[in-house]
């Protein structure tokens, strides 16, 4: 919530508005007074990004539910000339805001009759405009894929689960964990996916009669008898606290800026709206349509119409046995390129979905290098147990490309009768798949369906807005920047120069900068010269003379061959002499390591499952005369997140979108976030509103959405 508050305040000041904090929610609006409704300054939201909860407070207010309470609130707002409200909360808070808006004219008339305001005030403040942002860890609000706070709650759950798993394995114990979420099973379902739970119970899908026996049968595959030592852990309010994740900071910052733009564009006839997220896209939806849909879900739940409730939510992914036609194909899975957190979750998902589809799964060790050396063997269901939370690549991964070894790889394909390939990796995987596609003309063994799932911390694969591993790297950068900034608290003014990975792709530096509250981020995609560096130093010098005591500058490792991290550090040190001193840090491979974030586990699990179902479909479509023969372009694809959906794209069609020299896509969506970072760092810059959300309507879902609920940033 603090990231959203910070973004609204700074974007509001940027566009020339007066911005006020209303403390303790509607209670502060009803009570009024200088302490409860206070003008915000730029500096008043400094150092907020890394703080959990909300610094302006939040409280339930019975008084606001009464007409008299809302009358007091209206009077307090009119006294300060406030006619635009940005409300961050759940469906109750947003419903209350809409009722307040509908009553506004009548409330002003009452205030005139009571002699508290005059007719001029009624004319001047005739309309109240409202924009909502959904802040709830439950993710139970219809109309948005992710609510502010949900990802951070998942982080807290997974941290606890990972810690408990070691105890469970050491003592052969079974643990039953209770998570929050009220009537919505999102936290339970996604954390179950992310930690590889054996069983999950959610309100939308209550267990059928006899579920106890089924669960015992499932668990008995682990032990011969069920004399398990069982422990119950109730996580409780641990899930609400702690430092917000990188995802939540970016989501809240984007939504906060979007909310201000929506308020600027609203008219007296515009309905109150909610700014939300669909896939990777910011959208605006009528507030009451979302609230009504959310209430319909609750009504369906109360009436035990669970299937209807799931359809109305539209967020749950169902992976069922899609096996139709011929099964028992052989599928090989391999990792290619540098390791990325979440790769193991993707492999586990592929193996288990493949086996449940009736196929035989083969694991290739050490990428294409292991493939041509014959490092390939069948992998069973139990072999991938516990892989979800493991970092790196348990299969092993190399950067070797297949072109020089296609003959030997073809021999291995023939020897193991491989009918399809799943390649999980980064830019090398993309290049490798194109080389195998080219080899189809010479070797029939490559005339099989092939699909690539992007997995790289650099997030530089064409055809996908997001890659497995990038979220974990962003969290590593954000956590480190938080600690580095904290190290300077209480000392003299200091600027930190941080170098991030990414090759020539500036995703980590730019989006990490937005999440960490950086003052500047230098990247290859946005050329800079000595004048830009000088301008940044002067800007920081000016800020440091005020209340700001810490500065943060990120630099992508390949942003410029001459303006190195050392050069920038020395320049800032010299030019800032007498005002601030400098420190530099090269984050290095810590960005590639560590346990995968809940987002990457979830994204890897789902995207890999979708890839396996596509392979099954393609193998059945191309099965002729006792063999699979696929030689068309659409049987060699990359599965990527594109704006609102997961899309299969032939790799041939992605050639024109690729800068092969610098190993990056020619167009990158996140570049539109850079002006946002600059505005929030107090730079005078133009903000492109062409990509802002337009008012849409809530779509009733007959089937679960194609868009991936975790694929958003």
TrEMBL record:
InterPro entries: 6-Pfructokinase_euk, ATP_PFK, Phosphofructokinase_CS, Phosphofructokinase_dom, PKF_sf. Coiled coil: none annotated. Pfam families: PFK (PF00365). GO terms for biological process: canonical glycolysis; fructose 1,6-bisphosphate metabolic process; fructose 6-phosphate metabolic process. The keyword Transferase applies. One of its GO terms (molecular function) is 6-phosphofructokinase activity. Its cofactor is Mg(2+). It catalyses: beta-D-fructose 6-phosphate + ATP = beta-D-fructose 1,6-bisphosphate + ADP + H(+). The keyword Nuclease does not apply. Pathway: Carbohydrate degradation; glycolysis; D-glyceraldehyde 3-phosphate and glycerone phosphate from D-glucose: step 3/4. Keywords: Allosteric enzyme, ATP-binding, Cytoplasm, Glycolysis, Kinase, Magnesium, Metal-binding, Nucleotide-binding, Transferase. One of its GO terms (cellular component) is membrane. It comes from the Eukaryota. Residues 1-222, 330-614 form the Phosphofructokinase domain. This is Phosphofructokinase, platelet. The gene is PFKP.
């Amino acid at each position: 919530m603090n990231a959203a508050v910070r973004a609204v305040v700074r974007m509001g000041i940027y566009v020339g508005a007066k911005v006020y904090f209303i403390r303790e929610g509607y209670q502060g609006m009803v009570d009024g007074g200088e302490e409860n409704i206070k003008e915000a300054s730029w500096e008043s939201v400094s150092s907020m990004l890394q703080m959990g909860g909300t610094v302006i407070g939040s409280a339930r207010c019975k008084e606001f539910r009464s007409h008299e309470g809302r009358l007091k609130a209206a009077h307090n707002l009119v006294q300060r000339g406030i006619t635009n409200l940005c409300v961050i909360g759940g469906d109750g808070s947003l419903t209350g805001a809409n009722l307040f808006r509908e009553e506004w004219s009548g409330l002003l008339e009452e205030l005139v009759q009571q002699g508290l305001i005059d007719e001029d005030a009624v004319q001047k403040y005739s309309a109240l405009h409202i924009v909502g942002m959904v802040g709830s860890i439950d993710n139970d609000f219809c109309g948005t894929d992710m609510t502010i706070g949900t990802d951070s709650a998942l982080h807290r759950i997974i941290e606890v689960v990972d810690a408990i798993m070691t105890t469970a394995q050491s003592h052969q114990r079974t643990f039953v964990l209770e998570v929050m979420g009220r009537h919505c099973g999102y936290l339970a379902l996604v954390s179950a996916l992310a930690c590889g739970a054996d069983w999950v119970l959610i309100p939308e899908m209550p267990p059928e009669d006899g579920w106890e026996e089924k669960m015992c049968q499932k668990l008995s595959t682990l032990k011969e008898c069920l004399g398990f030592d069982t422990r119950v852990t109730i996580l409780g309010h641990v899930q609400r606290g702690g430092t917000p994740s990188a995802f939540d900071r970016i989501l809240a910052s984007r939504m906060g800026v979007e909310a201000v733009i929506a308020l600027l564009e609203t008219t007296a006839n515009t309905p109150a709206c909610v700014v939300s997220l669909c896939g990777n896209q910011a959208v605006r939806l009528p507030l009451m349509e979302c609230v009504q849909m959310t209430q319909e879900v609750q009504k369906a739940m109360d009436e035990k119409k669970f299937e209807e409730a799931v359809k109305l939510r539209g967020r749950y992914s169902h992976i069922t046995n899609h096996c139709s036609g011929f099964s028992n194909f052989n599928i090989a899975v391999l990792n290619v390129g540098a390791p990325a957190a979440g790769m193991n979750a993707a492999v586990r998902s592929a193996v288990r979905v493949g086996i449940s589809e009736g196929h035989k799964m083969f694991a290739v060790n050490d990428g294409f290098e292991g493939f041509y050396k014959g490092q390939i063997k069948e992998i069973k269901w139990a072999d991938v147990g516990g892989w979800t939370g493991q970092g790196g690549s348990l299969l092993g991964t190399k950067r070797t490309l297949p072109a020089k070894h296609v003959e030997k790889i073809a021999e291995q394909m023939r020897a193991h009768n491989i009918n399809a390939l799943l390649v999980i990796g980064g830019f090398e995987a993309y290049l490798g798949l194109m080389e195998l596609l080219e080899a189809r003309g010479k070797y029939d063994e490559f005339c099989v369906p092939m699909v690539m799932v992007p997995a790289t911390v650099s997030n530089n694969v064409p055809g996908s807005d997001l890659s497995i591993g990038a979220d974990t790297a962003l969290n590593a950068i954000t956590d480190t920047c938080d600690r580095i900034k904290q190290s300077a608290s209480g000392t003299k003014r200091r600027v930190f120069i941080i170098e991030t990975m990414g090759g020539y792709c500036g995703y980590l530096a730019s989006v990490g900068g937005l999440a960490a509250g950086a003052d500047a981020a230098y990247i290859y995609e946005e050329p800079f010269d000595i004048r830009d560096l000088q301008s940044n130093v002067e800007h920081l010098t000016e800020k440091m003379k005020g209340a700001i005591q810490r500065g943060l500058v990120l630099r992508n490792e390949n942003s410029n061959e001459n303006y190195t991290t050392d050069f920038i550090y020395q320049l800032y040190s010299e030019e800032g002499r007498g005002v601030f001193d400098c420190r530099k840090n090269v984050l290095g491979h810590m960005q590639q390591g560590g346990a995968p974030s809940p987002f990457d586990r979830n994204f890897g699990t789902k995207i890999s499952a979708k890839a396996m179902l596509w392979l099954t479909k393609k193998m059945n479509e191309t099965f002729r005369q006792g063999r699979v023969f696929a030689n068309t372009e659409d049987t060699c694809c990359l599965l990527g997140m594109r704006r609102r959906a997961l899309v299969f794209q032939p790799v041939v069609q992605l050639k024109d979108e690729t800068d092969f020299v610098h190993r990056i896509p020619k167009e990158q969506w996140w570049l539109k976030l850079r002006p946002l970072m600059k505005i929030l760092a107090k730079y005078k810059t133009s903000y492109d509103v062409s990509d802002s959300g337009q008012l849409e309507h809530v779509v009733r879902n007959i089937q679960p959405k194609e868009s991936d609920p975790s694929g958003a940033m």
